[in-house]
Amino acid sequence: MRVSKRASGAIAVGAAFALIASGCSTNDDEGGSAAKSTDGSIVVDGTEPENPLVPSNTTETGGGKIIDWLFTGLVEYPNNGGAPQNALAESIETTDSKVYKIKIKQNTKFHDGTVVKAKNFVDAWNWGAYSPNGAQNSSFFADIAGFADVNTTDPDEDGPKKAPEPKSKTMSGLKVVDDWNFEVTLAAPTAVFPTKLGYSTFMPLPDAFFAGKAEDFGKKPIGNGPVKFVSWENNVAIKLTRFDDYSLRDKMKIKDVNVKIYQDDTAAYSDLVSGNLDFMQQVPVSSLAGDNWKNDLGDRAISSTTPVTGIIAFPIYDARFKNADLRKAISLSINRQEISDKIFFGNRKPADSWANPLTPGAKPGNCTACKFDVEQAKALYAKSGGFKGQLKLYYNADASHKEWMEAVAQQIKTNLGIDAVATGVPTFAVFRQNINAHKMDGMYRAGWQQDYPDVENWVNPLYVTGGSSNDGLYSNPEVDALAKQASGAPSLEASHGLFEQAVAKIDADVPTVPVYFGGQQSGHSEKIKKMELTNVGELDITSVEL
Fold first, then answer.
1. Which of 15, 87, 339, 427 has the most Cβ atoms closer than 10 angstroms to its Cβ?
2. What is the pLDDT of residue 326?
3. Which residue intervals of 97-227 are DSSP H helices?
4. Please, is 346 exposed, middle or buried when counting C-beta atoms within 10 Å of its C-beta (0-12, 13-18, 19+)?
5. Radius of gyration, alpha carbons of the chain
6. Which residues sit opposite 305 in a β-bridge?
7. Strand pairing partners for 228?
8. Backbone φ and ψ of 171, nearest 5°
């Protein structure tokens, strides 16, 4: 989903040894001192987070963006899309891709003044993995030895049966060596493991987190990143301010960041044009026609390409969507090129693969269900037995999804004769709550922004049984087995080959409908003189100069 920085450096991986190099930067503005900082502030657009801000329980971009700013992890992802590099880690070493020795930089601080130690990572990961805590991202810890002892599942998905009590509260694969060193033993060799460590789920948590309730902490989070939390007024604003004791490379050059929560992206755009908003990550679709957004913003308009895919998902827990022929028929009935041309005015590209091709290990063109083939769609639809009743396609109405979701619904209706209708849910927070509660009685928008740069991130969270974002409850034992083999492969090459096989099984099942690859159109105010976007298109707040 998120964390990105500017500095240079890379993972150097050998056949028997992996080392994340200590990231040194040659950029003049890296490691900026407090003397370079100003007391300026900016206002950026945002959406109401679904949950209190706990890293391992945040799976959506509204809250995820804030967590990325509040926390710094072991590694980070350069804005230019390069290989991961060290952040809080001094070194990450392995001789077998199974046992990782991690050394952290000494005497960095949390926002409450306490020192970040090795145990803050180990305790945070154990808490996130322990299933009674209910962290949505718990599956990201499945690589670690002993995960099965701390994480059990409900056998009938929120039915009368309950998940059995875990055997342990801590994973056997985590060991604190001393204040600055800890050891991670995985269940199997996993070459991609260091790449994942920049994702927000793997952030450290302060001792204060474990002294109270997670929900209370999440309403007033204490991080270790370049900004600290000030306040959160629900559905209005989240305020952040510079953490002056931040000692890593990317220090803030401004003081305050105010995240204004909008219920309507056209209102945000009006504020951007008038100078009342300093950054908007995605301008409304309505402003793309005739390049109006470029005319409105001039040199403040920013076009970028990001590893994001627009997706519509099936609630496979609903019996009406269990037939794979029906799902494929619906996908084949969608003219992605027409949506790209007429709705996005060429600013987004038709999706033709299951993982965004900007991602390492992803293969273009492997989504056979992404073709537009009305004849085949009708044949499969007839074979499936059809669809009874109205087909609702849900989207959150506080961003620009109405136009393209209505276009998809109309195409399905025209090409298959299904009574399809696009239905808006007022806010992203409520929309996501309904999805996570498995209350969707129709298809729903479910775009994916990669969490870390590897094809594994496009398979395990979305399509493996119990995956953190497998919201439609898709399950295929063959996909699970291949993904497990791929995740435990000793080299990235072997891993990517096995994930390719898993994707072929996913393609046959069509659990979701990839629609477009993300092209992002952002804008900033005249106040901002210099800024950068992260590798996933978010504002890098540490780059902002006024």
1. 87
2. 98
3. 118-129, 147-150, 193-196, 207-210, 214-219
4. exposed
5. 23
6. 519
7. 241
8. -85, 135
